[in-house]
Amino acid sequence: MRETLVRAYMEAVPHHRRHSRFALGTLPLWRLAQDLGSTEDAANAVLGEHWAVWSTFLGPDLAECIGSLDIAGMAVESLAPSDARAMHVRLKSEEWYLGAVQVRPEISTHWAIFLKHIPSAFRIYEESLYLFHPGYELEVEDTRDHGNFRTWQRSGIFSSVLWEDSGVRETIFDPYQSMEHFRRLGEADELLHGQFSSALSETMMRCSDLDPNLTQKLHAAIKAFEGHETGEGLAHVSLSCRRFTERLADCLYPPRDEKVDGRKVGQAEYRNRLWAYVAENVRSGTTKDLIIANVEDLGKRIDKLDNLSNKGLHSDVSSSDVNRLLLSLLVVAHDLISLRQPGGKFSYEPYGDYFRETFGGDVWKGEGHGSQGGKE
């Protein structure tokens, strides 16, 4: 069962998102049922009767299992909901598999069932497995499970199997192994998701308002990253990021013939146009410097990956570098777009091709970003 679960994880989670800690053990659900008075109450406590918990269980089914079976569990830390669902699809045909449930550290029952009583066993990072062991014990005796180590090596799932010193984590000497600590982790996770989700949603909405082509180019970049299998695939992500940045510059600061602050701001000088846009829309010198530094950093990241691609060095393009590029792109886009109040003049330019195809070649005449256009 353990090997099947791990194989499902390796198949469901893309290489660039593959980094999780795994805990294994028998879940003390029967004890919970005794404490609460019934298996139904235990099932409701696990499934979050008063919380928003993602689950593939139905309460009555889980209650029946609690009453008749010892249930083994594998807790996977740092697993995206989409990857959890993909694992579930791969596992649901297994006769021993019962289902999946989201673990929320701020729920006391989840802490007691999934986090306190089943120990962390290993970490998976990309193609490698790291087996935990308390390194301080080696000074007295080698208590590592070498049989388990060799079993994982023989499985052929991983390119390497290694030991990792877990120190005093999850022992009686660990002051952070408490409900209060995990409650704070859960709250921080919830707050961070809310903050970043709001910023991302606003960025997507504002991009769509400026020019629907921006969201298409952003989609192309993220889709290419999620589906990449080679360094050459990663290079396409960089190209999509450049196209998005160029289009964003067209929307925020269209090309001009004259120089601005001694810099050319023509079609090719999209970075100069973004700098000019920042200079015209930010009064604070500190804020201006920070945003311009972020724009410059984004440009350097794109240039680096482009140079590697142009030289044919696709193997030197790493997924971590491209992941940082995407994060930088989103931060810069949010910074730039949010400098101006929404509700500006509607731009018909992105719709020009559609109108020309619909009404004929010269029926619609757009006049650049911010133009109202008109019929001839």
Describe the structure.
There is one protein chain. The protein is of the alpha+beta class. The protein folds into 2 domains: 2-126, no CATH class; 186-344, no CATH class. Helices cover 54% and strands 10% of the residues. The protein has 14 helices and 7 strands. Strands 2-1-3-4-5 form a 5-stranded mixed β-sheet, covered by helices on one side. The longest helix is centred in the middle third of the chain and has 32 residues, at 179-210. It starts with a helix and ends with a strand. Residues 370-376 have low confidence and may be disordered.
What is the CA-CA span between the terminal residues? 70 Å
Number of domains: 2
| Rg, nearest Å | 27 Å
Total number of β-strand segments?
A: 7
Q: Give the helix tally.
A: 14
Structural class, by secondary structure, is: alpha+beta
Strand order of the largest sheet: 2-1-3-4-5
Shape: elongated
Précis, in short:
The chain is α+β, with helices and mostly antiparallel strands and 376 residues long. The protein is built from 14 helices and 7 strands.
